[in-house]
Every structure is written in structure tokens, then in C-alpha cells.
User: Which sequence fits this backbone?
């Protein structure tokens, strides 16, 4: 199943739920990452059924701030391992200590290193990313 | 076999009313069959499909210059053998499905998808169809590919494939002469040689050899008339009329 096709099908189904008065729309968006013969691809499906292919995407309360951070990154030159750290920094960065509940970071990826399978990021890399993100936060706070 | 073409059905009705000739006396009433020889080979960079051009109804050659290689998409063609009607209908359906698939996919269909559609129709309607087909083409993912879809509706990817009644005579030749990674020129010459042997030996194959070469650059259709084909043992040189030879006064006229 090509990633594009999967995204189209999910989007069609989400859109369907916006067409009839007796069907409730989905109250969530989906960020879909996959690896097929056309390479790695990222799609985002919103509750309206709108679906696009993206190089960077964010959903949720802090998505505006997250998108701004993503736009600062040079995605074409970023490796997966670097990406993990950047993503962790963004998650920690947009988290508002005062207003938001505490959270647990979970990371998964699809890349050559994971044999093109979707897997949880290995623990050691996850811890490294968390540490780097927290360090970056402290640096910002120190300013 | 029960004749199915409209002409023969009418004739049948007429003859049964008048107590006319039975089908044994009129071997021109058969369903249109393509006795056929069809061949598909992969070469370094693409595929070459080839076929003879004889369509017979019983003993009569209904069409001596038929085109048995049909287009499914810009980059995928199919060789047809068996019932002319069955294979035409299958090709038409697959062309229609692939057209829609290409629109939805946003890029050319792959050879695998085209072959699979042919296979699904052939398998799911196996009790009603008599169609042996060879699908060949080029796509950017796997390059040149040949898929064989014989009578029962199996699908098999092969470096080369043969089909039709004339193919019986080609198994030995292919096993002996086939080479992996031929050039385009070698491949085209090879298929013409191979089909011309089948034409020589198989009564249900004849006419001209049509070839279709498909590669990254596109598609090239070619035509090899009967008198330009390589000759095999005991075959005579093609000649227009033996009377011409006599008129020329050659004393060797009757010696072969």
C-alpha cells in the first residue's frame, strides 16, 4: 500500500464524516509517516478531511509555535538522528510549564536505520534526545 | 465447437432451416481464433514483444495481417492468443481500468499492476474465457518486465515468455538460444527469428511478424513482411509466381 494511497483513503474516510448530519466529525488529526518505493513521505490529515504531503507538520495546542520552530530547520540537510534531537527540543520548547500538564515524550521513526519499518526510537537515542532538549531549555531560561 | 460469430450464426440458422451442410463440411464457420505465436523477451533496457498475424476461423484465414499486440497504456502492451473476442474484451476492460488508475495515481501505471488486472479477469472468468496473454512493458521502478498470463489465469514473471499454438515449436529453440541482457538490436532480431520458425512449422500461425519495443524512451512498432523473414530448412525462397520463372526460360525452373 503506497503511503500516498493510505493517506488518501484515511482522508476520504475523515471527510466522509463531515458530509452527513447524522455522522460526527473526527475530533483529531493524523500525522502519517511512511517509507515506500518512492522514499520516505509525511502526510497530515486534519479533522476536515484536508490532506497534504508535508516536509514538516504539527498538530495540537502548540502547533503554531512548533511550526515556527520547524520552519527554522534546514530539513533537506537533516539526518534522522539529528531530527530526533530537534523534534525533542521543539516538544519541550512549546510546553508551557504553567498552563500544561506534565508529559512523557514518545518518539518513533521510519528510516533506513530502522530497516524501513516503523519502530519506537531506540532507548539510548531517546534519552540522548531528551537530555539535549532539556539542556537547550535551560540555556533559553538562563538568558 | 459451436460457431459464435454473427455471420456463422446466421448461416447456421439458414442451413438448419434448409437442412443444409453440417459444420463438418464448412470449416470456415468457426469462432475467430488466433492460432498464433506470441513472444515476449526482456533485454538490457526494456522489452520486445512479437507476434504473427494470422487470425483463422476454422481452416479459413479470416485476417492475414492482424495486429495481436494491443496497447494497454503508454508503457505497457499485451500480446493476445486464443479466442480473438475474449482477448479483445479483456484488453478493453484492462485499458479502461488502467486509465482510471493512472488518473488516480497521478503517474504511469506499473507493468505489474497492468498484468495483475489481466490476471484477475482471466482467473475470475476462467470457465468462460480462452485467452493466453503475455503482458510486457517498462516502468521506472523495475525497468523492462514480461508477465505471462496463460489459460487458467496464473501470472508468472519471466525473462522471456512464449504463447499460442506455435509456441510448442519454440521451447527447445528458446532454451538453447536465449541469452540474458541482449542489446535492443539482438533482441529484435532474435524474436523475428523465433517467430518465423513457429510460422514455418505451425499451420495456425502465419503472415507477418509484428514487433513492439518498449523502453525508457518510449515505444517503437515494427513490421517484418513474410517474404523478408529468415528461412528455415527446406523452405523455398519467396517468389511471386512460378510462371515468371518458366517464362524466364531457366532450365533449372523445376529443380528445387
Assistant:
Amino acid at each position: 500500500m503506497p503511503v500516498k494511497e493510505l493517506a488518501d483513503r484515511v482522508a476520504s474516510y475523515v471527510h466522509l464524516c463531515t458530509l452527513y448530519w447524522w455522522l460526527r466529525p473526527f475530533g483529531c488529526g493524523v500525522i502519517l509517516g511512511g517509507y515506500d518505493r518512492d522514499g520516505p513521505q509525511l502526510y497530515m490529515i486534519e479533522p476536515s478531511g484536508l490532506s497534504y504531503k508535508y516536509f514538516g507538520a504539527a498538530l495540537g495546542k502548540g502547533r503554531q509555535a512548533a511550526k515556527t520552530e520547524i520552519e527554522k530547520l534546514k530539513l533537506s540537510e537533516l539526518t534522522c538522528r539529528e531530527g530526533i534531537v530537534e523534534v525533542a527540543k521543539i516538544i519541550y520548547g512549546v510546553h508551557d510549564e504553567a498552563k500544561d500538564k506534565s508529559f512523557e515524550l514518545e518518539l518513533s521513526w521510519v528510516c533506513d536505520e530502522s530497516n524501513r519499518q516503523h519502530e519506537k526510537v531506540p532507548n539510548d537515542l531517546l534519552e540522548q534526545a531528551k537530555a539535549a532538549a532539556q539542556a537547550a531549555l535551560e540555556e533559553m531560561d538562563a538568558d | 465447437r459451436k460457431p459464435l460469430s454473427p455471420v456463422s450464426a446466421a448461416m447456421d440458422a439458414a442451413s438448419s432451416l434448409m437442412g443444409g451442410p453440417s459444420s463438418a463440411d464448412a470449416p470456415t464457420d468457426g469462432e475467430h481464433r488466433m492460432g498464433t505465436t506470441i513472444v515476449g523477451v526482456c533485454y538490457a533496457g526494456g522489452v520486445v514483444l512479437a507476434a504473427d498475424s494470422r487470425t483463422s476461423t476454422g481452416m479459413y484465414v479470416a485476417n492475414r495481417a492482424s495486429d495481436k499486440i494491443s496497447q494497454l497504456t503508454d508503457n505497457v502492451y499485451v500480446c493476445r492468443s486464443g479466442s480473438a473476442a475474449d482477448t479483445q474484451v479483456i484488453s478493453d476492460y484492462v485499458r479502461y481500468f488502467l486509465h482510471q488508475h493512472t488518473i488516480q495515481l497521478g503517474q504511469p501505471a506499473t507493468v505489474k499492476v497492468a498484468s495483475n488486472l489481466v490476471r484477475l479477469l482471466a482467473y475470475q472468468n476462467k470457465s468462460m474465457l480462452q485467452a493466453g496473454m503475455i503482458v510486457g512493458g517498462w516502468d521506472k521502478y523495475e525497468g523492462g518486465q514480461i508477465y505471462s498470463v496463460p489459460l487458467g489465469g496464473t501470472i508468472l514473471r519471466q525473462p522471456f515468455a512464449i504463447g499460442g499454438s506455435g509456441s510448442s515449436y519454440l521451447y527447445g529453440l528458446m532454451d538453447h538460444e536465449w541469452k540474458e541482457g541482449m542489446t535492443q538490436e539482438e533482441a529484435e532480431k532474435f524474436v523475428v527469428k523465433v517467430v518465423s520458425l513457429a510460422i514455418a512449422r505451425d499451420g495456425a500461425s502465419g503472415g507477418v511478424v509484428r514487433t513492439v519495443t518498449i523502453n525508457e524512451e518510449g515505444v517503437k512498432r515494427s513490421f517484418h513482411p513474410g517474404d523478408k523473414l529468415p528461412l528455415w530448412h527446406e523452405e523455398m525462397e519467396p517468389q511471386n509466381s512460378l510462371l515468371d520463372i518458366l517464362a524466364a526460360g531457366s532450365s533449372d525452373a523445376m529443380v528445387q
In short: Chain A is about 40% helix and 15% strand.
